[in-house]
Hints:
The complex is a heterodimer of chains A (114) and B (117).
Chain A: E1 3-5, E2 10-14, E3 19-21, E4 24-26, E5 32-39, E6 46-52, E7 59-61, E8 64-69, E9 74-79, E10 88-96, E11 103-104, E12 108-113
Parallel strand pairs in A: 2-12
Antiparallel strand pairs in A: 1-4, 3-9, 5-6, 5-10, 7-8, 8-9, 10-11, 10-12
Chain B: E1 4-7, E2 10-13, E3 19-25, E4 31-38, E5 42-51, E6 54-57, E7 64-66, E8 76-78, E9 87-94, E10 107-108, E11 112-116
Parallel strand pairs in B: 2-11
Antiparallel strand pairs in B: 1-3, 3-8, 4-5, 4-9, 5-6, 7-8, 9-10, 9-11
Amino acid sequence: AQKVTQAQTEISVVEKEDVTLDCVYETRDTTYYLFWYKQPPSGELVFLIRRNSFDEQNEISGRYSWNFQKSTSSFNFTITASQVVDSAVYFCALTTSGTYKYIFGTGTRLKVLA
Amino acid sequence: NAGVTQTPKFQVLKTGQSMTLQCAQDMNHEYMSWYRQDPGMGLRLIHYSVGAGITDQGEVPNGYNVSRSTTEDFPLRLLSAAPSQTSVYFCASSYNPPRAGYTGELFFGEGSRLTVL
């Protein structure tokens, strides 16, 4: 069975602080794909990144970076120098080859205070 | 470029009433799915479809029906609404169903907020 755990329900930081959002996944498949989505207060879901199980390279995009570690089944998301506009709910998701199901974690609400 | 369009955006129903949430995409995506979002529960998969004429159940299918007669449309039907179905519903699509070699990200609609009294 597939499972995604986002243990941090809510995080509050002050603007310009760095923050890491944790994502731990479970799957028995060797081919799988991990995603992060952002849901701002307006409610839409915005795709941020996709990573497949064969590529453990970390990725950096501006202030965002992602750390994928198969050894600990984690796919963590770090925001550097957070801004108020980063305030949102962030979801981690998992799908595996052949299951046709994208499974989401319960989300982490990030509040960045000015 | 409309993407994924959901209607209606808001709906209030009485217990026992039926309704259909519409979802249409104009990206020629094979894969479509419905999620519900409840506080503290994240996004839970209701039903999904890997192509016209093919549907299957997700994590929480009870109380919902779907059909996929065309590539573009994937309506979600509530046959007899219950207060437990009060939620925000999202339709999502992807170019390919998850499979080896390619798995695309999901494109989401703006959501439909349903209240069942």
